Amino acid sequence: MKHTSLREECCEANIALPRSGLVDLTFGNVSVFDPAAGLFAIKPSGVPYDALKPADIVLVDLEGKVVAGDLKPSSDTPTHRRLFRAFGDKGVRSIVHTHSRCAVAFAQAARELPCLGTTHADHFHGGVPVTRPMTPGEIQGDYEWATGGVIVECFAQTDPLSIPAVLVRGHGPFAWNVSAVKALESAQALEICADMALKTLALDPAAAPLDACLLDKHFLRKHGATAYYGQ
Q1: Count of CA atoms in the C-beta half-sphere (13 A) of 134
Q2: Residues 6+ apart with CB under 8 A from 152
Q3: Which residue in 24, 159, 211, 229 is the catalytic one?
Q4: Block means of pLDDT (10 residues each) for the chain, length 231 residues?
Q5: Which domains are seen in the chain, by residue range?
Q6: pTM above 0.90, yes or no
Q7: Which residues make Cβ contacts (< 8 Å) with residue 156, sequence separation at least 6?
């Protein structure tokens, strides 16, 4: 089987999705990128997570050609491909898409997820952005590819690993990181922070964002050259 380890990493992460509580039914997928080979592994469309095997995982190159696998890849494959083309050289190796409920609430409200506390700051160096509205031409054309395009627009001036998630307006979250395990962690952190933010804003709709100095302290103690958190 071609690229066995890539398929295994992708399969394990997709099986972990329902255990994480981030997905309902089959509303989610994980992809894993191999930059040296120029291709990525992704969940096949509509296959139940508990039925997945590494051999079911589909391999796709950055031009969109299926290079291995007998099943159709996820319908979100063009979005993943667009993101790997833009973010792959910045260290992004895995993408997680879910319809996790609290993050979706912010996406449906077309609201950025604000950084209101240090839990958020431990994972995201600022608010998690929401994409602009898609045009009728984008929606009626190559919709999934255009979805990736509006995400890339959001990060034109931002390192995607400093804020490893986005809210697609009216749709839901995409998260990413340097491995499938880390990307799943980003997706979980996003949902946790969205849940906390919803509750905070219910108590105080005018709650202010976290002070910039405290935001920097919490993010940079865990990420980057000066990080000192953990072993």
Answers
A1: 22
A2: 82, 83, 86, 87
A3: 229
A4: 83 93 86 96 90 94 93 94 97 97 98 98 98 97 97 97 98 97 97 98 97 94 75 60
A5: 4-220 (3.40.225.10)
A6: yes
A7: none
Write down the H helix ranges in 88-221.
101-108, 118-121, 136-140, 143-154, 180-203, 212-220
Instruction: State yes or no: is 122 an active-site residue.
Output: yes
- To the query of whether residue 228 is one of the catalytic residues in this protein, the response is no
CA gap 129, 133 in Å, rounded: 13
For 135, the token pair is 């045009």
When computed from its CA atoms, the radius of gyration of the chain, rounded to whole angstroms, is 17
Cβ(78)–Cβ(64) below 8 Å: yes
Q: Which of 122, 142, 195, 216 is catalytic?
A: 122
Query: Which residue's entry shows tokens 């994409």?
Result: 131
